[in-house]
Amino acid sequence: MATKPTVAIHKFSSCDGCQLALLNMGEALVDLTGRVDIKHFAEAGVLDESAHVDIAFVEGSIVTKLDTQRIQQIRKNARYLITMGACATSGGIQALKNLAKHPASWPADIYPQPEFIDSLDRSEPIKAHVKVDFELWGCPINSRQISAAIGAMLEGVMPRDDREKLCIECKRQGHVCTLITQGEPCMGPVTRTGCGALCPEFGRACYGCYGESELPKNAVLARRFLGLGLLTDQVERRFQLIHPEPERTLGLGHGGQDD
Amino acid sequence: MSRDYQTQTPIAARVVEFIQESDAIFTLRLQLEDAAERARYQFMPGQFNMLYLFGVGEVPISIVSDPLDDDIIDHTVRVVGRVTRGLAQLKKGDRLGLRGPFGHGWPLALARDKDLLIVTGGLGCAPVVSAINYALKRPEHYRKLSIVQGVKHANDLIWQHRYDDWREREGVEVLLAADEAGPAWPFHVGRITELLDHVTTAYDNCVVMICGPEGLMQRAAELLLEKGVPPYSIYLSMERNMQCAVGHCGHCQLGADFICKDGPVFVYPDIRERLLQEGV
Amino acid sequence: MERQAPRFLARQNFPLLLEQLVEHGYRLHGPQVRDGAIVYDTFHSVDQLPRGVQDQQQVGSYRLITSSNKRLFHWANGPQALKPLLQPAREVLWQAKRDANGALAFMVPESSIAKVAVIGVKACDMAALALQDQHFLQGEYEDPGYRARREGLFLVAVDCSYAADTCFCASTGDGPSAQTGFDLVLTELETGYLIAAGSDKGLSILPHLPLLDAQPQDLDIAQQQHADVVAMQSRALQPIPIGGLDRQRGHPQWQDIADRCLGCGNCTMVCPTCFCHHQKDELAIKGDESQHVREWDSCFGESHGELTGFQVRKTIKHRYQQWMIHKLDSWQEQYGRSGCTGCGRCMSWCPADIDFVKEANVLGGGSE
Amino acid sequence: MGGKMTERRVTIDVPSLARVEGEGALHLKIEQGTLQHLQFKIYEPPRFFEKFLEGRHYSEVPDIVARICGICPVAYQVSAVNALESLFEVELTPWIKQMRRLLYCGEWIQSHSLHIHLLALPDYFHETTVLGLAAKQPDAVKRGFFIQEAGNRLIKFLGGRSVHPIGLQVGGFHKAPSLAEAAELHRYIESALPEAIAMAEWVARLDMPDEQQSFTSVALTSPHYPLETGRLKSDRGLDIGVDDYETYFTESQCPHSTALWSLLKGENYLVGPLARLNLNVNGLPPFLDRLLAKLGNPFPSQNMFHSMLARAVEICFALHEASELLRNYKVPDTPSVPVRVKAGECCGWSEAPRGLLWHRYQVDAEGIIRAAKIVPPTSQNQARIEQDLAQSLQAFGLEHSDEALRLHSEKVIRNYDPCISCATHFLRFSAERSP
Ligand SMILES: Cc1cc2nc3c(=O)[nH]c(=O)nc-3n(C[C@H](O)[C@H](O)[C@H](O)COP(=O)(O)OP(=O)(O)OC[C@H]3O[C@@H](n4cnc5c(N)ncnc54)[C@H](O)[C@@H]3O)c2cc1C
Ligand code: SF4
Ligand code: SF4
Ligand code: SF4
Question: Which CDD domains does the annotation name (chain B) (predicted)?
Answer without folding.
Answer: sulfite_reductase_like
